[in-house]
Design goal:
By secondary structure, the protein is an alpha/beta fold. The protein has ten helices and seven strands.
């Protein structure tokens, strides 16, 4: 079972993620309208909704490891897309897809060697992969605030991280080893000022940290992190474009 998420608050405060996702979807210019596309880490379904518009005669699949996110996505998308709850490291499809998209999600996956192999198996030969997630250097200052708050209020979280923030060279090696060709990986700095800083930090950054704490100790920790962050939040995105 995935980390519990406050899906509704995430959905309301996820304007930065939607902005980044629009850039990824723009890279799919020329996709066949009848293509089958897979959205990995679909969250609340907003990106999946936009993906549907790119393949009006096609088929869209979407998965997320969070039951809360999937429930909201299913309500948003209805029968327009097939949405289910699953860890991407357990992904098995009946038939490979033409396109895989993932935005603001894959840095939550702990094992990137297995990750890219799973995605390669899910993509047909010649199929396209377009990804954006947290990359090397992502939220370094925010992580310092998390570490300081942990030392004060949650010592069991000191030194712990739920993320894999990889860089381009290691990611390119992993993709080529998994069977991808025409691989391009690059970092992009995206300083971010959310409209609702408190809600954004709690629901986009801290869910896995909060899940490791007893309920009565979550609020002091979260409040200490929010008080310690500086704006703009120092986001760095890892972009991946590849062909199977």
């Amino acid at each position: 079972m995935g980390t519990p998420w406050d899906a509704r608050t995430y959905d309301r405060s996820s304007a930065p993620q939607q902005s980044w996702a629009s850039e990824v979807l723009a890279r799919l210019d020329g996709i066949a309208p009848g293509a089958t596309a897979l959205d990995v880490g679909c969250g609340t379904g907003r990106v999946t909704q936009a993906l549907l518009e790119l393949v009006p005669q096609g088929r869209v699949l979407a998965l997320d490891a969070s039951e809360e996110m999937v429930a909201l996505a299913q309500g948003r998308l209805g029968d327009r897309a097939e949405v289910w709850c699953q860890d991407v490291l357990d992904l098995e499809l009946g038939a490979p897809v033409d396109v895989i998209v993932s935005t603001a999600a894959l840095h939550w996956v702990p094992d990137h060697d297995r990750l890219w192999v799973r995605l390669a198996r899910a993509l047909r030969p010649g199929g396209r992969l377009e990804v954006q997630c947290g990359g090397e250097g992502n939220i370094d200052r925010v992580r310092e605030a998390i570490e300081a708050a942990a030392r004060e209020t949650a010592p069991e979280l000191v030194g712990w991280s739920p993320w894999t923030f990889a860089g381009p060279p290691e990611t390119e090696r992993r993709l080529r080893a998994a069977g991808f060709a025409e691989v391009r990986c690059w970092l992009q700095e995206r300083p971010t000022v959310p409209e609702e800083v408190d809600a954004f930090v709690r629901t986009s950054i801290l869910p896995a940290h909060l899940a490791r704490l007893p309920e009565e100790r979550r609020e002091p920790f979260a409040a200490a992190v929010v008080a310690g962050v500086e704006l703009p939040l120092d986001y760095v995105r890892l972009n991946v474009s590849a062909v199977r």
